[in-house]
Amino acid sequence: MNLAALNEIAEKMVTPGKGILAADESTGTIQKRFDAIGVENTEANRRDYRELLFRTTEAMREHISGVILFEETLYQNAADGAPLVDLITAAGAVPGVKVDKGAKPMAGFPGETLTEGLDGLGERLKRDYERGARFAKWRAVIDIAPDTGNGGVPTWGAVKANAHALARYAAVCQAAQIVPIVEPEVLMDGAHDIERCDTVTRWVLQTVFQELFEQRVALEGMVLKPNMVVCGKKCETRASVDEVAHRTIAALKAHVPAAVPGIAYLSGGQTDEEATAHLDAMNRIGGFPWKMTFSYGRALQAAPQKAWAGKPENVAAAQRAFAHRARMNGLASLGKWEGRLEQAA
Ligand code: 5MM
Fold this sequence. Notes:
Blueprint: H1 3-13, E1 19-23, H2 27-37, H3 43-54, H4 57-63, E2 64-69, H5 71-74, H6 84-90, E3 94-98, E4 103-105, E5 113-115, H7 121-131, E6 135-142, H8 156-175, E7 179-186, H9 194-214, E8 223-224, H10 241-255, E9 262-265, H11 272-285, E10 291-296, H12 298-308, H13 315-332, H14 339-344
Parallel strand pairs: 1-2, 1-10, 2-3, 3-6, 6-7, 7-8, 8-9, 9-10
Antiparallel strand pairs: 4-5
Helix pairs in contact: 2-12, 4-13, 8-9, 9-10, 10-11, 11-12, 11-13, 12-13
2-O-methyl-1,6-di-O-phosphono-D-mannitol binds next to helix 12.
């Protein structure tokens, strides 16, 4: 493993003013997104949609440091035959690939999942590297649910198993000269309050970094993709932007070592503007040892998907919508976003 080279890629992924586009929806997830805009989920439509994003030249060049691809997209060509991965590289962004095989029901732990995909991972990474991928992503999913006589969720067994799988994945990536994005996502589904999200997020982060240490993962050669500390979607009380920012920074400061080059948050179902405002507030507060940016899926793509609706005549409008969100989040990564910029657009 060449740690200096891994660190260089990780630093590039969290370049101030830029962030990561998570365009790695699996076929089932993109089906849901396409259903919402009346688009058939064919390989050609998936290609056309992603190609329009990657060809949003200025936004890609100015505000996107890396793109997480679904395996299909990594090996797919644009309509003119050029590998899609080349469009990303030409824009100066780093291509990456989601290598987990999804969160599957965890045997013995009703209501919880364990992310799978370690079998054959080293071999897949070799091919992915040859195709141009320089980082990978693995998402562990931790749900929060009340105690209904079963002790509640998450359980220690599920937290520990998911953290261990994340750490093994990260170790295999680094051995293949690929920077691992380590994504432990505490879901915001449910009615839990922000205090509960805070407690679970801290527990999960602590466990993940313990496992990363035990599995000899070099923290300088990875990027962390966590959730922010937020209220559950169905919680009756809402937390202010300031509270989310302060709690998230405090949780991370307590449980994430300073050797990690950067934090790239997931949006997790927040509205586009919430995700931007929270990131901006954290960067305005500052005083932490890592770069803090975005690795958003929905919060970057909801607007362009709606604008596109599968129609070639809407491509320019979709690209404008994507460019706008990329610029807003780029500013948020610098703590320079203002709500009035949204209205102006
Ligand atoms: C883009 O969505 C990613 C893939 O999800 P599936 O494996 O379920 O298809 C997802 O992992 C995403 O990268 C992260 O959750 C961040 O996306 P959001 O929408 O939460 O910002």
